[in-house]
Amino acid sequence: MRESGRGGETVRDWAPPGGDVRGLRAVVVGAARSGIAAARLLASRGAQVTLTDLQPALPAQEAIEGAGIRLALGGHEPALLSAADLVVVSPGVPPRQPALEAARAAGVPVIGELEFASRFLSGRLVAITGTKGKSTTTTLAGRMLEAGGHRVLVGGNIGVPLSDQVAQTAPGVVHVVEASSFQLETTTRFHPAIAVYLNFSPDHLDRHASIADYAAAKARIFANQERDDHAVVNADDAPVIGEARRGRAQLVPFSVSRAVADGVCVSGAEVCWAGQGGALDALFPVSSVRLLGRHLLGDVLAAAAVARLLGVGGEAMRTAVEGFAGLEHALEPVAEVDGVQFVNDSKATNVEAARRAIESFASGLVVIMGGRFKGGDLGLLREPLARRAVRVVGIGEARPLLREALAGAVAVEEAASLRDAVERAAAAAPRGGTVLLAPACASFDMFRDYAERGRAFKEEVARLAAAARHVRER
Question: Which CATH code fits 121-322?
Fold first, then answer.
């Protein structure tokens, strides 16, 4: 055990002696996906594990207990945490909860699941963060590396928790990890060989105390990099470049709008690696990219930079790009009904993500927005909506906020449910137009998560399509 600095404070750190945690009294806080994975990892290596959660019961309770994990449900008991040798925090748990503070005061090391799992890895680590685009970039980078012959494990904040990858780690494996601000804020020694920072805009202000705290959490992706590591950064995003330059890694820029040196850019109809002195090496045609939205092209360029750094050639990248039609709930084309296109961007849970989604279309747009507002400036949507949208349909808790912020820029009407919103949007959309779900808000006032919201949207569109077919066939 040692002490290390993080954000100006001193925290008690922990390292497994040779990876041995046998007999360690460990408490994992938060029984969501990552917390359960951390508990399983600890138990599989002989630790005495207690998993605690605010819920009084868990869906997979018997399976968890069958893995040798003790459950302490219905609250986080300070005495339990303070008596532990180690506390591992699931990313969904705010790190300043009183029970966690009491454990720190008692000298117990408190670290996050991403930090904990990373200490058991023997393979190369690629970490990807940003306010928007993490999942797309992580998935595509993994596919490019696989196409180039690498053995790849993709996960983190998307799909498989990093703790569940430890059993498969090996020196030849590349771990491609999506890293959220919730995960990064609890890191102390997390050290990616390649760190990717896509973009920055205010988000999660319902969790982080300020924009500065959110920015500081994101910037931790660079904190432990050394001079032989690489930082893949968006050359068009000043805050991102500024944070990267404070680190020690070699900068590898990418840009969709201008030339770069030692990075990835667009030149004419090609995505290119740009060397020093302006030399360009074509990697694959822009026409290979099948994703809606120019901002998603930036994600493709970032993935290409990762692949290039790990020796993947342009032909393998092209194969991966041509076979990638995007992720569910990320500018996902759903259907065309009576001449109107329906697009699901339920992952657009903040203002910046919604703005980029809106700007992906020219005109004739009806946007379904709303939910639980996480902070930011909805007024930033006025100009792109005024130029493209014929109407906004508001849902959830944020309906009055939307009406106030967008008054005079675009017509706003309120819907009582998502079904009501889809019906109103379909009625308002012109033939040849688009109904876009881009909420700019979290889903928790109406749904379990953005995925459930996106699936509900698609179900309502399917219902509309079926009704339209019935009318035509009568």
Answer: 3.40.1190.10
Of 346, 349, 412, 345, give the one whose Cα is nearest residue 376: 349
pLDDT band at 208 (very low <50, low <70, confident <90, very high): low
Rounded to 5 degrees, what are φ and ψ at 223? Answer: -60, -35
The dihedral of CA 358, 454, 206, 215: what is its sign?
A: negative
Q: What are phi and psi of 163, to 5 degrees?
A: -60, -30
Domain 2-114 in this protein, CATH class: alpha beta
For the chain, the straight-line distance linking the first and the last C-alpha, in angstroms and rounded, comes to 74
> Please, what is the Cα angle at 351 between 442 and 321, to 5 degrees?
90
Rg value, the chain, Cα:
23
Among 2-6, 300-304, 343-347, 352-356, where is mean pLDDT lowest?
2-6
Check pLDDT > 80 for residue 1: no
What's the CA gap between 251 and 231, in Å, rounded?
5
Residues marked active site are found at 134, 157, 204
Separation between Cα atoms, residue 18 and residue 389, nearest integer Å:
59
Structure tokens at 423: 């019906």
Domain ranges in the chain are 2-114, 121-322, 332-473
pLDDT at 6 over 90: no
Q: Which CATH superfamily is domain 332-473 in?
A: Mur ligase, C-terminal domain (3.90.190.20)
Per the document, the length of the chain is 474
Name the more confident of 242 and 294: 242
Q: What are phi and psi of 42, to 5 degrees?
A: -60, -45
